[in-house]
Amino acid sequence: MEEKLNAYPLKFEPNLKTVIWGGGKIRKLKKLADAPDCIGESWELTGVPGQESVVSNGEYAGRDIKSLLGEFGAQVVGLNTYNKYGDMFPIMVKFIDAAKDLSIQVHPDDDFAKRRHQGMGKTELWYIVSAEDNAILYSGFSHKTDENTFRSHIEHSDVVAQLNRFSPRHGDIFYLPAGRVHSIGAGNFIVEIQQSSDITYRIYDFDRIDKNGKKRELHTDLALEAIDFDEYDDYKGHLELDRQGTALIKRCDKFVSELMRVETPMTVDVKSTGSFRILICISGEVEIAGSNGSRERLATCDTVLLPYALDKAVVTPVGGEPAELISVVVE
Predict the structure, then answer these.
(1) Number of domain units in the chain
(2) Would you call 251 a catalytic residue per the annotation?
(3) Is residue 3 part of a domain?
(4) What is the pLDDT of residues 83-105, one digit of tens each?
(5) Which one, out of 37, 75, 235, 249, has a CA that is 20 to 30 A from the CA of 331?
C-alpha cells in the first residue's frame, strides 16, 4: 500500500553550475557568500538522471525528488503525470546568468534523444528577468537554409550571421522547441523552464579557449541531425503585469507557464489542475500557506514545488511590496 505524503511546499538545494561564461548575479540574489563568481546556472528543480534535486526543508529534507516519486507516486505529481513519466520528474527550472556569451547550440526532440541517448528531449522557454542595454540573444534562422548550407557556415565559423538576433528586455519570452538553434548572449539573466534533460549539441563556441587551453568540443553531426531548418514567425513574445493577477506565458505539450503578480493574498489551485505546481519567485518575497496549514517563505530567486496532494495554497506578499512569480504545471 502506498504511503501517504505529508504534503507541504517543497524547496530544494540549488545545484550551482560554474562555467566559463557564468557571472555573480545568482550568488548575490541567493545570498551565497561562499559561492564562486562564475555561476552560470542554478538548477532549482530537476529530474535529470543522476542529478535529481534534493529537498532542503521539512520532513523530507535530504531526500531527492526521484525517491519521493518512488514512495509517493501520483501524490507528488498527479496520476496522469506519474503514469506518463514514472519516477522521473519531467520539468527542470533554472536561473541562468550569462556574464559572457553562451555557445550556439541546439537540443534534440524526444524521439531523437530516446534513439541516441535513451533520454528525454529538451524543449525550453526563456523568460527574461533582466537584460543589460547591450545584451543580445539568438533564436532560429534569419532566412531559409538547409543542412548542407549550414554545415558550410559552421566550417567557416559563419554561424551567427545566419540567426535571428534580438535585443531582449525584462518581460520578453522566447519559446525554444527542440530543434531550434539558439544562444544566450552576455548580460542576460533568465528563468529557463524546460524538460528534465541535459542533452546539448554545441554548434559554435566563438573559438573560445577553456581553462586548460583547449577549445570546447563541438557536436556538428548530431546538431545537424537534430536541427529544425523551418522558418517560424513566433520567436519572441512579451508579458508584464502592472496589477494583481495571472496571465499565460506559454502553453505547449510539455508544460504550461503563467506570470503571477501578487499584491494581496492570492489562492492558487494545485490538485484541480491534475498536476503539481512549481512557483518561481522573480521579484519580491512571498509566504506560501498550504491548505493543510503548512507554510514556507519564498524570496527572489527561490523556487518551490507544490505537490499534487497539497490541493490549494495561498500566496501572500511579504513586507507590503508586490511580488512576481512564474507558475508551471504539466497538463
Answers:
(1) 2
(2) no
(3) no
(4) 999 999 999 999 999 999 999 99
(5) 235
